[in-house]
Write a structure and sequence with these properties.
Length: about 575
């Protein structure tokens, strides 16, 4: 107990403004006014979640407890936790910031993020729960040779998680920097340290309850924000949009535009083209967001935390409802920020950009409608959002290394539960360090866009392997492992060569790959590679793989032989 109190005290101290430390690290960086409400809410949330982690640690004794909370989470709880896991910094901070900048075009995130959930519900939820135990690789490799497919799944998971982590770390760093005047680097280190505490000691049980609490707080806070924005517009969306158009027109006039140019700039926020410039990028972007949802390892892992397939379907239904409602709110919040934040000089720096970074539109809006008290609440909720998602990401990556690589590939299924847990916790430490490093490198990126890159990887590698292994009897080990790898590498290489990374992040000049998303090329590459390699595979293993499909289908459809929940 003393150790946990010490951890809480340490975390509380870390969250307080440290002007001397900040000045030493950032030189001339200016401190923000101290918001004691925000500080107290931050500390209260950290204290609550550390207490949850302590309670969960006492019940985390086996690998099943650590990875899936023993499979004992109800469908409603898991749906809320799924929503909490999915409504990340990209959803709350990134989408509202994108709408603040580009208007209507930001809707591509809300739409794309949401429409992948019916795929999960109708094609995958029941099959995943019946076939898997800890990770999506259990499903993808069910009737195949284990080492090749699990190796692919582990590498894919680590790549997807790495890009997804970037968005969370950048959002958290900018948030704490804005509120507390701490250097960005220190803020990122704080988040990394807290993330490791949750996962190391509490596992999936602690992560689930942190995600549930975060989802309730975020839905409540976002509902209040949207309601207050609409109240100031007479509860008229038409009035909100008209006012936003006028604000953008006036801003363009102030920037030296002619009357005609300013009028066009104002109207442009109600039409596509500000963010996604060409049809190829628009289709590619939407494809990545839609199919990537069904390939995210930390979301797929949640299907194994429920007792049976019925609860898995219920989870997706609940999650889809909460997430759809939330994305409606982000649209109102984004346009509300244009009207209430874009016209207030105190929220802007000398160059007219958002103070604290481009992802802070929702945070400033909270202050505009509710003062310091609501700013403190929303800031704590945003911080909770980031910590919950980061914990889920880290857990999925740790399970990929310990369960898929160490226990299955290296130890050939003979590793003990204690050994798996030890490897998971060592992996968590390594991932914490990696997350901090990535957060520092990608500091200036829009967090929603960085998540879209992770979605492109998931859509190109994980999704084709899962769908074809579940639904096509002709899929083979070689097809799944090599075809999935081709799709994943195509997405990864084209992402590195895209303007977002090649030009915006590493400043290497014009990008060799001109489009913002690789999915329109990499997703077909994944599917076609799996199909062609499987079709040409005449090995003895291929015959075994194809012969195993009927048994897989029986279990996938009926649940006979599926793993049951642990009895605690």
């Amino acid at each position: 107990m003393k150790a946990w109190l010490a951890a809480l005290a340490t975390a509380s101290i870390m969250l307080l403004p440290l002007p001397a430390f900040a000045a030493a690290l950032e030189g001339e960086a200016q401190r923000q006014p101290v918001n004691w409400v925000a500080i107290l809410m931050f500390v209260a949330f950290v204290g609550l979640t550390l207490w949850i982690t302590k309670a969960a640690a006492a019940r985390t004794r086996t690998a099943s407890d650590f990875y899936t909370a023993g499979g004992g989470i109800s469908g409603f709880q898991n749906g809320l936790a799924m929503a909490g896991d999915y409504m990340s910094a990209a959803s709350f901070l990134g989408i509202s910031a994108q709408i603040f900048n580009d208007g209507y075009d930001g809707l591509i995130y809300s739409t794309g993020f949401l429409v992948g959930w019916p795929i999960l519900l109708f094609l995958m939820a029941e099959r995943l729960r019946n076939l898997g135990r800890f990770t999506f690789a259990d499903v993808a490799s069910y009737r195949f040779a284990q080492p090749p497919v699990r190796s692919f799944a582990a590498v894919s998971t680590l790549l997807v998680v790495s890009f997804y982590l970037i968005a969370q770390m950048v959002g958290a760093g900018q948030l704490i920097k804005l509120l507390f005047g701490l250097p960005y680097a220190v803020a990122v280190v704080i988040v990394g340290a807290l993330m490791m505490l949750y996962v190391l000691f509490g596992g999936m049980r602690a992560t689930t309850w942190v995600q549930i609490i975060k989802a309730v707080l975020l839905l409540g806070g976002a509902s209040f924000m949207a309601l207050m924005v609409l109240a100031q517009m007479g509860f008229s969306l038409e009035a909100l949009f008209a006012r936003a158009v006028e604000v953008k027109r006036q801003a363009a006039l102030s920037g030296g535009a002619t009357m005609a140019e300013a009028a066009e700039r104002g109207r442009s926020i109600m039409a596509p083209g500000n963010f996604i410039k060409d049809p190829v990028s628009a289709i590619s972007f939407g494809l990545a967001l839609m199919l990537g949802t069904a390939g995210l390892p930390h979301i797929l892992m949640r299907f194994f935390t429920v007792p049976d397939a019925k609860e898995a379907r219920k989870s997706v239904l609940w999650a889809t409802g909460w997430i759809g409602y939330f994305y409606i709110l982000t649209f109102i919040i984004g346009f509300g920020a244009i009207v209430l934040v874009g016209t207030e000089p105190s929220y802007l720096d000398g160059e007219g950009a958002l103070r604290g970074g481009g992802n802070m539109a929702a945070i400033h809006l909270a202050h505009a409608i509710g003062g310091n008290a609501f700013l403190g609440f929303i800031s704590a909720v945003a911080f909770a959002t980031i910590l919950a998602v980061v914990a889920g990401l880290t857990l999925s990556a740790a399970s990929a290394v310990s369960h898929d690589l160490y226990a299955t590939v290296f130890k050939h299924g003979r590793a003990g539960s204690a050994d798996e847990l030890r490897v998971s916790r060592l992996t968590t430490l390594a991932l914490g360090a990696l997350a901090v490093l990535l957060g520092l490198v990608f500091e200036k990126q829009n967090v929603a866009f960085m998540v879209s890159l992770a979605f492109a990887l998931a859509a190109s590698g994980n999704f084709p392997v899962l769908i074809l292994s579940l639904l096509w009897s002709g899929c083979t080990t070689r097809g799944a492992a090599w075809g999935g790898t081709i799709g994943l590498l195509t997405a990864f290489v084209l992402t590195l060569l895209s303007p977002a990374v090649w030009t915006a992040t590493f400043d290497l000049g014009p990008a060799p790959f001109p489009y913002s998303s690789a999915a329109i090329f990499s997703v077909p590459a994944g599917f076609l590679s799996i199909w062609l390699i499987s079709l040409l595979d005449r090995s003895p293993r291929a015959a075994v793989d194809k012969a195993g499909y009927p048994a897989q289908r029986v279990r996938a459809e009926t649940g006979i032989g599926a793993f049951a929940a642990s009895d605690h």
